Amino acid sequence: MPASASDVLKSAAAIAKGMGITFKELMSPTITENYPDEPPKFQERYRGVHVLQRDENGLEKCVACFLCAAACPSNCIYIEAADNTDAVRFSGAERYAKVYNIDYNRCIFCGYCVEACPTDAITHGHGFEVAGYNTSTLIYRKEQMLVPLPPKP
Amino acid sequence: MSKLVRLEIDGKPVEVPAGTLVINAAKTVGIEIPAFCYYDGLTLQGACRMCLVEVEKSPKLVTACTLAAAEGMVVRTQTPQVVQARKAMLEFLLTNHPLDCPVCDKGGECELQDLTFRYGLGESRFLETKVHVPEKQWSAVVYYDAPRCILCYRCVRICKEGMGVSALAVVSRAVDSEIAPNMGDHLYCDECGMCIDICPVGALTSQDYRYQTRPWEMKHVGTICTHCADGCTTTLGVYNNRVIRGNNHDRTGLNGEFLCVKGRYAHDFIAHSERLKCPLMRVDGKLVEVSWSQALAEVAARFGGIRSRGGKFGVIGSTRTTNEENWYLQKFAREGLGTGNIDHHRSGDVISLLSALKGRADALAATSDLYERKAALVIGSDLAQQHPLVAFQLRANWRHHESHIYTVTRGPVREDAYSRLRVRAEAGRELAAAKSLRQALQAEPELLILFGDCVRGAAVHELVEFGDSLGIPVRYICLVDYVNSRGAMDMGLTPGLLPGYQPAAAPGLDLAGMLAAADLDALWVVGANPLKNAALAAERAFVVVQDLFLTETAARADIVLPAACAYEKTGTVTNVCGEVQRLSRAVTTMGAKPDLEIFRSLAARMGLDLGEPETDRVYAEMRRQLPVPAAGEAARGVVASAGDTLFTSGTLGRYCGVLRNVREAPGGLYQ
User: What single string gives the DSSP state of each residue in B101-157?
Assistant: First the structure.
């Protein structure tokens, strides 16, 4: 049965409505991110891979108090403490973390360690690409998490 | 039994013996009165003012730690005034106390931290900059951080009263007050670390635990100290299969909170770099590393060969292995190798004592007697150096109960300071000198006699006769050197006696006899170093040594089997008073095996079935009927103490870095 004039009109209206949405969205700013071609955008408080901070003198803020390890519900933080000496100083206090490992096989990114830290040494960064083919690569050492020292002028 | 008094604390009726302090009376009904300076067993100080309570009819708040409970007293511990006083006191204590809890070693087990949490204000009105004083090192093991100190005087009192050393005091006034060591800038003391342990805050810290880890991260293993024979419990803090510290803050064991330098710090031999971790076998005159199976097979084959041709064995046991191991070793020697030549280094004549007592079990003293008996006679031992716990308990007995101490020694000892009578005697004349005290001793209601290795053989019989002739109840302690010296004798590591001091059918050679026997075919040395001062006459003998380190004896061996130390195994040990206590395993060292495991592997390879160690049965029999060894048995062999001081511990002492570094005690043995 040939289409009636009203059917044609109805179809045209539907197409116009659909295309209207298309053109409207075409004009509005995009939400979709171009990851991995462009870096993703994060909310300020996104809990990613941890970052170990330095103080204004470039010393490590971490004093190896073990409170993060105590607070950690998945038991993924391993610390070995050691004494600072006058010759070699790592942190501002008497003690520093000689070894500081986080096992990202176990970490659940709950943020309790950050909350527990009395010196604001451990924070969540925005790193999230922690997938790997080998679980042993997911144990991050202190050197991987420390904020790099600014280049010497 | 002293009179009971009735009082009321927070509305609860309390009934306690007269003289009980209110702080302790409150504890009996589950009311906590917070305090820093009060410490059970020490003199009262009233320094911290934390225990202030309200007492009816008293115009001001009273310190509960210095107030004796009295009939009809009404005490209140929760009134707004008391709560306010506690908050103010804590605020005051924290005026200059640095808030470095994340770094402080005490963080997590700090009394100031705990009480601030429970009773504190949460914030301070003191906004001024805190006074800072740099940290000081007082000795190889003691550090002092003055700003953290709350001046509770606990360290000062434990050092003076508990240890009898008086190495600490408070100097300066007001905000500058701090604890100072006796030599101005360093300590000259026993280095026992009691001051560190008793410190309620982190002002005193120890070298070995400093900045290593935190209390909650460690596994805490209560075990028996492996050094002297007193049998103190030391609670080892283990982190990552490493012993970080030793203390006994929880007051478990015979020793309460007491530990000497050895119990607290001398655990570093476990991880010593020279520790044997692989069996060694002599190949072409040199000791080379071999596998366990190769070494065990070789020992089993050689032992089997010598046994089958009727060769002559010699077995030397240890004073540091467990009762189970000692039992198994003597059974191995007697049944497996068919020899009676078994002995160990004897440091006290327990055999003669048992022989002289003729089965009177009530004449053997327990550790608790040291604190409870009304009089004690010490013959031929510098207790503070050789038996720190015994000295500590006798001193506490004298302080708390005014007991009478008598000393008969070759030279000056610390006990002189509070002994009623002291006699100097030349070596060998100690017993005669002790007898000169007859009149004074007879006047005592009861007596405890402690004697060292100078009284041995017939002299022990003479001593017991002397004790019996006093006409008062007398108990004896035969002082021996090492953690299981007593157990080695109980378990029959002697040529003439089986476990439980039963006579052996065929008594063999003693230690000196074995070393001197030129026709010895095999010598098996377990945890001992007999060749340190003696030579082995049998040059061609096949020597097997089980030890932790390459000692002089091990260096002569054909096969060396690395053994586990007492902190690496379970089992029981028997202390100087005959109390049997259990070891717990704290750590493991890869490659070393417990001696019992080595014995069992050898027995299996030699096709022997020696059964399970029957130590429980032996001790049950000994408790049922105290054995009476024949008087002649004690005469067999040599009894001589190694004369260790606070800073030596036989072979182990050589491998304890702390003991070698810390040599600042007032005088050595007999000064």
Answer: TTT-TTTTS-HHHHHHHHH--SS-S--SPPP----EE-SSSEEE-GGG-----HHHH
Sheet holding A77-83, edge to edge: A77-83, A95-103, A139-140
Contact call for A82 and B211, based on CB within 8 A: yes
CB B534 within 8 A of CB B510: no
Flag if B214 and A119 touch (Cβ within 8 Å). Answer: no
* The listed CATH number (3.90.1010.10, 3.40.228.10, 3.40.309.10, 3.10.180.10) that belongs to domain B350-471: 3.40.228.10
The per-residue pLDDT for range B416-426, each reduced to its tens digit, is 999 999 999 99
Q: Which of A65, A93, A118 comes nearest B214 by C-beta?
A: A65
Same fold, B4-93 and B123-271: no
Architecture in CATH of A49-145: 2-Layer Sandwich (3.30)
Residue A95 to chain B, least CA–CA distance (Å): 6
Closest to B405 measured CA to CA, from B376, B380, B426: B376
The model carries a pTM of 0.91
Facing residue for A94 by CB, picked from B107, B211, B214:
B211
Q: What ipTM was predicted for this assembly?
A: 0.79
Is there a contact between B103 and A94 if contact means CB atoms under 8 Å apart? yes
Q: Extract the residue ranges of chain B whose pLDDT is less than 50.
A: none
Of all residues in chain B, the one with the smallest CA distance to A64 is: B103
pLDDT for position B667: 56
Residue B533 CA: distances (Å) to CA of B254, B348, B552: 35, 19, 9
Kindly provide the residue ranges of all beta strands, DSSP E only, lying in B530-589, ordered along the sequence: 542-547, 559-562, 571-574, 580-583
- Alpha-carbon distance of B491 to B322, in angstroms, equals 10
C-alpha to C-alpha distance for B150 and B168, rounded to whole angstroms: 15
β-strand pairing of B421-424 with B404-409: parallel
Nearest to B103 among A70, A82, A93 (CB): A93
* Nearest of B157, B134, B156 to residue B146 by alpha carbon: B134
Predicted local confidence at residue B402, as pLDDT: 95
Interface test with B, best of A85, A90, A94 (most B CBs within 10 A): A94
Amino acid at A116: A
* A66 vs B210, B214, B240: nearest CB: B214
What's the pLDDT at B154? 96
Chain B residues touching A119 at Cβ < 8 A: 102
pLDDT average, residue stretch A92-113: 94
Domain ranges of chain B: 4-93, 123-271, 280-347+484-577+590-643, 350-471
- Per-residue pLDDT, averaged over A4-27, amounts to 93
Residues in chain B whose Cβ is within 8 Å of chain A: 100-103, 107, 135, 210-214, 216-217, 240
Across the interface, whether the CB atoms of A81 and B100 are under 8 A apart is answered: no
Is B214 close to A95, i.e. CB distance below 8 A? no
Instruction: Work out whether the CA dihedral B574, B575, B581, B585 comes out positive or negative.
Output: negative
Between the alpha carbon of residue B97 and those of residues A108, B87, B175, B203, B419, the distances in Å are: 37, 15, 11, 10, 42
Q: What pLDDT does residue A4 have?
A: 87
Query: How many alpha carbons lie under 13 Å from residue B636 in its C-beta half-sphere?
Result: 26
Q: What is the overall mean pLDDT for chain B?
A: 93
What topology does CATH give the domain B4-93?
Answer: Ubiquitin-like (UB roll) (3.10.20)
Helix ranges, B266-357 (H): 292-308, 323-331, 350-357
Domain chopping of chain A, boundaries? 49-145
Chain A positions with Cβ closer than 8 Å to B: 63-67, 69-70, 80-83, 93-95, 118-119
From chain A, the residues in CB contact with B107 under 8 A are: 65
What's the gap in Å between the CA of B40 and the closest CA on chain A?
A: 31
Look at B101 and A118 and tell me if their CB atoms are within 8 Å: yes
